[in-house]
Amino acid sequence: MQYRAWFQCINEQCREQYPLNTIIYRCKACDSLLEVQHDMEALGRRDAKAWMKLFEDRYKSTQWPYGSGVWGKKEWILPQIADDNIVSLYEGGTNLFWAERFGKMIGIDNLWLKLCGNSHSGSFKDLGMTVLVSQVKQMISEGAPIKAVACASTGDTSAALAVYCAAAGIQSIVLLPKGKISIAQLVQPIANGALVLSLDTDFDGCMRVVREITKDETIYLANSMNSLRIEGQKTVGIEIVQQFDWVVPDVIIIPGGNLGNVSALGSGMLMMRDLGLITKLPRIVVAQAERANPLYRSYLKNFESFEPIEAQKTLASAIQIGNPVSFEKAIRTIRQFNGIVVDATEQELSDAAALGDTTGMFNCPHTGVALAALIKLLKAGKIDKAEHVVVISTAHGLKFTDFKVNYHEGALDFPCNYSNKPIELPARVDAVKEALEQALEKRRTTNG
Predict the structure, then answer these.
(1) Residue 149's closest CA among 130, 177, 127, 122?
(2) What is the DSSP string of 6-49?
(3) How is residue 423 annotated by DSSP?
(4) pTM (global) more than 0.90
(5) What tens digit of pLDDT does each residue of 217-228 get?
(6) pLDDT digit string (tens) for 335-380?
(7) What are 255's strand-pairing partners?
(8) How far apart are CA 426 and CA 431, in angstroms?
(9) Separation of first and last alpha carbons in the chain
(10) 193: left (phi > 0), else alpha (psi -120 to 50), else beta?
(11) What CA–CA distance (Å, rounded) separates 6 from 36?
(12) Which residues contact 81 (CB under 8 A, 6 or more apart)?
């Protein structure tokens, strides 16, 4: 069966369409963002149970390229791409962590973390980058003049772009804000052969520059204003539902920075509903750092206006974005999903991440923002303890070891309530025994 997809303007008064092999990021007619649309009538000729069976049969299989969590749903992503042009590192298929102990600590019965950081480059950005780089490879094979793919990044996008371009044999260019990302995030694109430009600005400044240089059609834009990224990232919601045997959770909480992930999550859910795989939608909660919270500020005004801000330095560096490209799509999604926007202070996000770690997690600071949002909503009665909640963990904690070390050493500018410092001792058995007795007794008392 022949399935089709194309770019379409999100402006309801415009709805201009463009082929997916067009080098385009905004509508030529009205300058609005684009999204990928699918021939839903054709997709609907296969019934919901048949789609479920197809996705189940492919899931984590060795059949190229369908074992990928993204490409196992190829018909819903890029149906017309040649398999030979797909650049996949078997992304997706990340585990759901049943956060039973943490849930009991904060007063919720059914809490799960979707560990998107358990991926090749260590973040959920792999889901979108496999689609974008595959389409670039297809376009090059068709004669497009693309010589390199570029992005502005606070760390995770650059890592994902660099690794997928390395796998494809395509040059990557990454623009990073100097001194504002972790060493682990800086070394990833360097190791994978990217041309790394460290600019004396913040993410929003890098974004302004990359939008200018990608006006040259030989350099293709890889940021989330390119809706090909959203097509891959939308599989996270589909995969969550699939992992719960096609039962939809009540609430999904996702950190928000440039906000492409918000509309991506919504897109996958709406597609499942429209094709009959599910009958209800979850509430979507977007969590922002208080120091970079333009969406939260707009939410407080019922989205009557949206004003970019100058983001302040936050430990959640990947979402330190004051002028998010995808805010229009995010607002549309929040309205469709009866959504909530919450922000978290530096102490709240740090303590939430650290408390979660004591129960077996290893949280990045952005996951800490989402966990802090959950705690606040539970206390406010906006999430019920009986609801089925999924928190999307966007990156692996190993990318942010400085954040964790500084927290546990008490080197941050607020009290670190769950810090756990190493105990330095002489190498004597009596000293070790004494320290163990004191420390274990203290922990018994603290834990009741």
Answers:
(1) 130
(2) EEEES-TTT--EE-TTS--SB-TTT--BEEEEE-HHHHTTS-HH
(3) P
(4) yes
(5) 999 999 988 999
(6) 999 999 999 999 999 999 999 999 999 999 999 999 999 999 999 9
(7) 287
(8) 7
(9) 62
(10) left
(11) 5
(12) 74, 134, 135, 138
